[in-house]
């Protein structure tokens, strides 16, 4: 669900060594559903914008108190967006996260605790258990926000075309599910509504069908670039989790409560005692859209990486640029055990 320029399903992005200009330095206001950029080491920066970089979305922001009593001001996103584990199949990451403002990319923080399970393609045993890992594998990351970055509780999104669907919704807390063990499946959420905000398709709502330890599954729409965006219960405005992946009309969301428990040692049932959603209800800053950045990348490539002349021709032939492939994780058909 992470969006980047790639020639295969989850191939690494191309690393370019030169740097032309520094990203923007002014502070921003981010919130659930805001877009983020995750540049690779050595990524080109032009007019303050990282060229050909990963594009994802953000979940809820707030302050978490860990098991030792230490406080952390964080923002949730998807683990596969940041690749903290250094999976070879995914793009490399600097660990620094940026918000794409019209003036350029603004640093908002660094990656903290994160987890994303991706089987080694050479590990036969792991791939034989791909269904279990799909249902139960974690997919979360916490961005440790910089002090000069403002955050809001309002879940809001603008899609790739600059359209807004629905009003902002201020988050009130986290849905604290009863913890499931790996392999357990529960339908206690069957039929309940779910809405999500992401920077590719914007606001989408659907119906939950079941849940597992690290996944709430629903009939709802997600696309690449929505990953890490905020999923919530529209009846209570409580956070359910973050957008993780989609298989056709069925989408998966990493539960926020399980991510907080695993990352910060919080006991089951006590998540809202340890996590305080940002109190601010200020609007998000204005950001560039995925569509704008894709168009800018194509223009940069056409200017800086022209196609080789066709054999026997003295006139360079520049083919039409293909649509930027959107990596997805190959998964088997879902089946409840």
Automatic annotation (TrEMBL):
Spell out the protein name for this chain: Peptidase S1 domain-containing protein
Q: Which organism is it from?
A: Corynebacterium xerosis
Q: Sorted alphabetically, which InterPro entries does this protein's record hold? A: Peptidase_S1_PA (IPR009003), Peptidase_S1_PA_chymotrypsin (IPR043504), TRYPSIN_HIS (IPR018114)
Where would one find the signal peptide in this protein? Answer: 1-21
Keywords recorded for this protein, A-Z: Signal
Query: What terms describe the molecular function in GO for this protein?
Result: serine-type endopeptidase activity
Question: Keyword Methyltransferase: yes or no?
Answer: no
According to its UniProt entry, one GO biological process term is: proteolysis
**Which residue ranges does the record annotate as region Disordered?**
304-323
Q: Which domain of life is it from?
A: Bacteria
